[in-house]
Design goal:
- By secondary structure, the chain is of the alpha+beta class.
- The protein folds into two domains: 133 residues, no CATH class; 87 residues, no CATH class.
- It is built from ten helices and eight strands.
- The strands form two sheets. Strands 1-8-5-6 form a four-stranded antiparallel sheet, with no helix packed on it. A four-stranded mixed sheet has the order 2-4-3-7.
- A hairpin with an 8-residue loop joins strand 5 and strand 6.
- The longest helix has 16 residues.
- It is elongated, with a radius of gyration of 21 Å.
Length: 253
Amino acid sequence: MPHPSPRALSENEGLAFVGERMAQTACIPPKMAERMLGTGNPHGKPNSDVLRRLVTATDPRHPSLLWQIDFPSNMGEREASLYEHPFHQLYRNARPDRDGWWINRHADSRLRAALARRERFLATPVGAEPPAFTWFDSSIIPDDTLVAVARDDDFTHGVLQSRPFALWWRQVHSRRTPTLALKTFPFPWPPATGLSALTVAQEEHRHAVARAARGTDAEQLNAAVAAAYGWPADLTDDDLLTRLGDLNRQRAG
């Protein structure tokens, strides 16, 4: 079977991100984070301003949550020092040797802005085969062992759990290009299509896929996703990949 040679789709722009590299010197144990969250500061602001939870899939079977001291790039050293406990802990760990040493250099502003617009997001370990998408609260930052999808709807989750995407991921995904499968995958219609722009049929398919995504019946989900594309549910793997490849080239123009 020929490789689909997919191209990135402009309609998928801003959908997928590799998580941030973990700032090792900024990571703290949960008990310490708990103490910091319960400690006040001279300016009356809470330490929750500068503490973030981080999810990692170092063990792809068991993603785990960590805590990280996370001073934003627009915060000066004097202001940062007023968050006393986090600042001094980071000072001890980081051994300051550069300007702006307190700032998280690995923070990805595009990723954070995309997640901030959602209540939750999907993420799968980079090395997962097949992809294993899990919901996370948007206040949590994914690290670079994860590929994050900046969507919070069950329809997207259903499509990404379905057989078409699993086949596409297996065909296209690699650790060297961790977001390529998501950037090239042709959804039944462009992900950014507003609800008011959906046809009556598309709206019905969207609800059917979302309902199936919340259930446990894989066959029901695959049938609902196939119907959203307007395709038979019993296509062979080769036929399904051929149709997805054709749709990718059509959408790429």
